[in-house]
Amino acid sequence: MILAPSILSADFSQLAHDLEKVVSAGAQWIHIDVMDGHFVPNITIGPIVVKHIRRTTSAYLDCHLMISEPDRYIDAFAEAGADGITIHAEACTHLHRTLSRIRELGLKSGVSLNPSTPVSAIEYVLEVTDLVLLMSVNPGFGGQSFINAVIPKVDEVRKLISQRDILLQIDGGVGTDNLGMLLSKGIDVIVAGSSIFNSMDPESTIKEMFAIAAANES
Hints:
Distance between the termini: 13 Å
Strand content: 15-25%
Largest sheet: 8 strands, parallel
Order of helices and strands: EHEHEHEHEEHEHEHH
CATH superfamily: Aldolase class I
Low-confidence stretches: none
Number of helices: 8
Number of domains: 1
CATH class: Alpha Beta
């Protein structure tokens, strides 16, 4: 399991400290939710913040662009220090071209699907895709409940990517209560925000998650 705590739920007044805590506890990635107030009803951060985060950690920076016209900003996030950029199939007119550009910049390319978007939307871009992100909430805000109707999509995407070298990621409403089930279905990368940062002890929560992952493998 790759664990990617989402900074959307972190305390931005002490972000460096929060990042250090989750990485020290074992998180391999940091998930950065970028929202523009247009594609989703919220505004968060841009390349400048990513640039400063890059200075504070060597962890993999997983930038999730929930924005319209992501092509306009891919180069800026690459220059800021992103390791991977995920874009939404719903936001791209020329999805194959955009994913190809991410790879041209030397980054891992990801494509995300909202809960109501069919898996067929990504069928023809797998050759330029390193990661598929399934949203298990409607994007825009942290702390939402997991949408159970997404579970069959996990099976569908797992079958679609088959033996390809593509990671399967899920984001939204994931915690210790449903983690084992998701891992058993073949999820590779877990994004968790409020379940980690809003817990009484984020480090203990992360360790519990990895214990669940270890039990799932045995």
